[in-house]
């Protein structure tokens, strides 16, 4: 999709981190942005940031885990801004902990947001985008953990492997409708994902572990704005899979050329 300017772009989970940065970047490209989030106050804050910079945005409450709420939010977006031609499925949470420590409740929660949330939004938005008959684009924020196994994040990996497979298959279907699909696969990005996430352990002090991981992300200091740049470029150039950060690229090529090393690394206590 060459022309972002003048399009209507909906971003999920846009009240924080990568979603907020993507909403700001799309607005800077001239898109009119539907800023959506589970937390309406943070969505409003992002929309205000956009308008303060001379862009156009409106905020909407949207819980991606609830298909009814997604349909309702889409109707509000259509009423407030018009029909979106860009959808950025960004909303997501982290669940950390070994499989044996991860509760079924956490599995259900992360599946309903990270994987089914993407499906719910595509199911609601895509008929509108296809019917419009104009070029469009779906961006799914996956992760380098969408192609890299890692101990301690089995539930998160399961959702992101799902998002990547879904994105690649959907791309094959939507090409007929001039709608591109990109999966963005970031490495470690400094956002609220760890502080807002679920961490379960039968052995560790989970709050001490959370602070340790959060500090690691702080030290890594890779800003969400760089992921947002990849989102914009993926839309323009219709890229299929886009690793972001050096570690995400390294894992991408290791998986192809040395899958045994990826399996070996997955067993290491890296974080
Ligand atoms: P974040 O916690 O800063 O932002 C996530 C946003 O999603 C929040 O605003 C939150 O309110 C919203 N959200 C949570 N549940 C929701 C729901 N049910 N409906 C709608 N919105 C909901 O985290 P982030 O790092 O910016 O994460 C954004 C995406 O990027 C996620 O899909 C995450 O898995 C992915 N990702 C993050 C990293 C990283 O290192 N931060 C790396 C790879 C991929």
Q: What would your notes on this structure say?
A:
This protein is of the alpha/beta class and 271 residues long. It has a single domain, classed as Rossmann fold (3-Layer(aba) Sandwich), CATH 3.40.50. It contains ten helices and nine strands. The strands form two sheets. The protein has a seven-stranded parallel beta sheet, with helices on both faces. The radius of gyration is 18 Å and the shape is globular.
In terms of topology, how is this protein built?
Layout: E1 8-11, H1 17-28, E2 32-37, H2 40-52, E3 56-61, H3 67-80, E4 86-89, E5 95-96, H4 104-132, E6 136-141, H5 154-174, E7 179-186, H6 193-196, E8 198-199, H7 206-220, H8 224-237, E9 241-244, H9 246-257, H10 259-266
Parallel strand pairs: 1-2, 1-4, 2-3, 4-6, 5-8, 6-7, 7-9
Helix pairs in contact: 1-2, 1-8, 3-4, 4-5, 9-10
The protein binds nicotinamide-adenine-dinucleotide.
Question: What is the gist of this entry?
Answer:
Helices cover 52% and strands 15% of the residues. It is an alpha/beta fold and 271 residues long.
What keywords describe this structure?
271 residues, alpha/beta, Rossmann fold, seven-stranded parallel beta sheet, two-stranded parallel sheet, 52% helix, binds nicotinamide-adenine-dinucleotide
Q: Tell me about the biggest sheet?
A: 7 strands, parallel
Strand order across the largest sheet: 3-2-1-4-6-7-9
How does CATH name the architecture? Answer: 3-Layer(aba) Sandwich
Compressed to H and E, one letter per element, the order equals: EHEHEHEEHEHEHEHHEHH
Please state the overall shape, judged from the principal axes of the Cα atoms: globular
Give the CA-CA distance, first to last residue. 38 Å
- At CATH level 3, the topology is Rossmann fold
What is the average per-residue confidence, as pLDDT, rounded to a whole number?
Answer: 97
Give the uncertain stretches in residue-range form.
none
CATH superfamily, by name, is NAD(P)-binding Rossmann-like Domain
Q: Could you give the count of β-strands?
A: 9
- The percent range for helix content is 40-55%
Class of secondary structure makeup: alpha/beta
The figure for the number of domains is 1
Radius of gyration: 18 Å
How many helices in DSSP terms?
10
Please indicate the percent range of residues in DSSP E strands (runs of 2 or more). Answer: 15-25%
CATH class: Alpha Beta
User: Which small compounds were modeled alongside the protein?
Assistant: nicotinamide-adenine-dinucleotide
């Amino acid at each position: 999709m060459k022309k972002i300017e003048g399009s209507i772009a909906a971003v999920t989970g846009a009240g924080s981190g990568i979603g907020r940065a993507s909403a700001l970047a799309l607005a800077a490209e001239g898109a009119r942005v539907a800023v959506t989030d589970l937390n309406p106050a943070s969505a409003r804050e992002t929309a205000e940031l956009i308008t303060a910079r001379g862009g156009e945005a409106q905020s909407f409450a949207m819980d991606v885990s609830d298909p009814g709420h997604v349909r309702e939010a889409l109707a509000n977006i259509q009423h407030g801004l018009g029909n979106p031609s860009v959808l950025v499925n960004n909303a997501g949470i982290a669940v950390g902990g070994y499989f044996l420590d991860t509760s079924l409740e956490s599995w259900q929660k992360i599946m309903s947001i990270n994987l089914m949330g993407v499906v719910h939004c595509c199911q609601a938005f895509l008929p509108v985008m296809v019917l419009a008959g104009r070029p469009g684009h779906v961006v799914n924020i996956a992760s380098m953990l969408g192609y890299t196994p890692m101990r301690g994040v089995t539930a998160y990996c399961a959702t992101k492997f799902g998002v990547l497979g879904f994105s690649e298959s959907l791309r094959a279907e939507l090409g007929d409708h001039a709608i591109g699909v990109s999966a963005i696969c970031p490495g470690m990005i400094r956002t609220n994902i760890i502080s807002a996430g679920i961490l379960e352990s039968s052995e560790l002090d989970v709050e001490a572990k959370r602070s340790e991981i959060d500090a690691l992300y702080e030290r890594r200091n890779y800003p969400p704005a760089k992921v947002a740049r990849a989102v914009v470029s993926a839309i323009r150039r219709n890229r299929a899979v886009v690793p972001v950060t050096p570690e995400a690229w390294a894992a991408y090529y290791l998986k192809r050329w040395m899958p045994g090393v990826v399996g070996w690394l997955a067993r290491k206590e890296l974080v």
